[in-house]
Each structure stands twice: as structure tokens, then as C-alpha cells.
Amino acid sequence: xxxxxxxxxxxxxxxxxxxxxxxxxxxxxxxxxxxxxxxxxxxxxxxxxxxxxxxxxxxxxxxxxxxxxxxxxxxxxxxxxxxxxxxxxxxxxxxxxxxxxxxxxxxxxxxxxxxxxxxxxxxxxxxxxxxxxxxxxxxxxxxxxxxxxxxxxxxxxxxxxxxxxxxxxxxxxxxxxxxxxxxxxxxxxxxxxxxxxxxxxxxxxxxxxxxxxxxxxxxx
Length: 220
Prior knowledge:
Layout lengths: L4 E7 L6 H9 L6 E7 L5 H7 L3 E5 L5 H10 L5 E4 L4 E2 L3 H12 L5 E7 L3 H9 L7 E4 H4 L12 H11 L4 E7 L2 E2 L2 H5 L1 H19 L9 E2 L1
């Protein structure tokens, strides 16, 4: 029986890049549904998403990435969820296939995409902390095992990574050549971008807490 695949994209004021993310997704035949959660955006993010026939869920206020992703998941019955950021630069159909195929073929329960040969700053960040990547394909059943009460803000990636270890999920890192994203300082200016980055790091550290952390993942 064919597996239904849904892409969930959390987006906050991403009118500059979201079209370039949705274009290759629209051309990928394995994708059944695209949900964009416009998380309090004040720009044309939602309208651009609709122009690509994406299903758009809009919030009047920003509630954070975690809430946006989980809202998208709750609004689909897909068997496989593909998480993608809305600020990606250089996304191609082969990146999408690389993330999805191991899960489709039942060779992995979750894949995590790692930028490679994109830009030095983003490549380096993902190589030292690959478990924080927001580009993932995941079997839906594992989302239902998340302890949502312990997830805040940007903590969704860390929560999924910790759950993968706890549940002994088969996880693969997948290299995504020539892919990168806009940095927070580029999108919101140096000061606001810095504050946003500090909040992200705080949420990540909060999730990490005092839990014992141990990764045993395969690279492909």
C-alpha cells in the first residue's frame, strides 16, 4: 500500500525564500501534500505559499517553530512527514528524494539532512551539531511519542533527536550538497538576528537539560 507523504514547513516572514522551497517540492511526484504554517508572518509568506497550491495554516501571532511543526503534523494523516525550513537556498528535487527514500524503503525511521558545500558558516554549524538540523523525514508514528510538554520554541529538533535515541530509531544522516539557508542575522538584522539566535540556543540547552546524550547514527 502506497505511503502518503506530507511536507510540513514552518514559516515566519519568509517571503524572500519560500517560493524557491515550494517550487521543487511541487515538481516532486512522491509528495502528496504540502502544509505551510505561517507563524504570525507579516509579509506575503502565506500568499506565495498558496500560489504553489500549498495548504496554508495561519496564526495571528508567532508561537514558535515547535508549535508550527506540530500543528502541521496534527493537520495531516500522512504516514511520512518531511520537515523543511522555509529559508532554504538551493533546494532541489534530489535533496528531497535523498531525505525521503530511506524512510520510504523502510531502511530508516528518520533521516536528518546535513548541508554540504553550501556556505562555510552553515556547513560548519551543522557539522559540529548535526542533530539540530531542521531538514528531516520521519515516520509519523514517532511524532506521537514526543513528550510535548518538554518542548519549547526551537526545541523540536533536539526533542526528535533525543527521542530517536530513547526509542532506538533507525536514523541516518544524509548529506545535502550545495544547500544552505539564510542566517538569522541576514533576515532580521544583526541585533534582532543575534537575539533570535540566543533564544534558539537557550531553547536547545533547555531541551538538552541533564539528559544523558548519546548518538549512534549512520551517515549516507
